[in-house]
Design goal:
Layout lengths: L1 H23 L8 H23 L9 H16 L16 E5 L5 E6 L9 H13 L2 E4 L11 H5 L11 H4 L3 H10 L2
Parallel strand pairs: 2-3
Antiparallel strand pairs: 1-2
Helix pairs in contact: 1-2, 1-3, 2-3
């Protein structure tokens, strides 16, 4: 039974890793290519190890089932693991460009918005992003804010009282209200 579970689960995880690999394989700007290659290499290693769990003859021996399970657990954890690294911070003036070397050696070109930048002009914000993306720069700062945006609580018509202070009757709409909500979503 455990073998059936492992075989099915390993197949699903291999497929998940292949989907992840396809997402990494998209074309990236030059500043991300080294990072993308590092990610592709690591995912390819995981896929090969998943395949090994199913096809390697030494894992088929009954006395090595515990080893196979440990290897499986290790691979599952590695697929979801993001290695902790030292935080990278930069401090630079508005309007300046800063080159930031990442842990894998790739370099990001960050451009902080100028002090006189207007974040309320939507078209200008999009143009600004495209212009600097064409230069290989990543723009940082408050790029756009809608000056006429409605407050989220007003938009959603939420209650003023904190939810933690509402009674059960205030939190549970009842079957008629729930039916009305479901009907409105059909």
């Amino acid at each position: 039974m455990l073998d059936d579970y492992l075989i099915g689960s390993v197949g699903q995880l291999s497929e998940r890793a292949r989907h992840l690999l396809a997402a990494i394989s998209k074309q990236y700007p030059p500043e991300f290519r080294a990072l993308a290659q590092t990610c592709r290499n690591q995912v390819n290693e995981l896929i090969a190890e998943f395949d090994s769990l199913i096809n390697d003859a030494r894992y088929q021996k009954p006395e090595l089932k515990a080893l196979r399970l440990r290897a499986y657990t290790d691979l599952v954890n590695r697929l979801d693991f993001i290695e902790p690294r030292e935080e990278i911070t930069v401090d630079y003036r508005p309007g300046e460009v800063e080159l930031v070397t990442q842990h894998d050696g790739s370099v990001l070109k960050l451009r902080k918005l100028a002090a006189d930048y207007d974040p309320t002009d939507r078209i200008s914000a999009i143009s600004h992003l495209q212009l600097h993306q064409a230069r290989g720069e990543i723009v940082t700062g408050l790029l756009y804010v809608d000056p006429d945006a409605e407050d989220l609580h007003d938009h959603l018509a939420t209650v003023q009282k904190p939810l933690s202070q509402l009674s059960d009757a205030g939190l549970i709409p009842g079957s008629a209200a729930l039916a009305g909500i479901n009907d409105s979503l059909r």
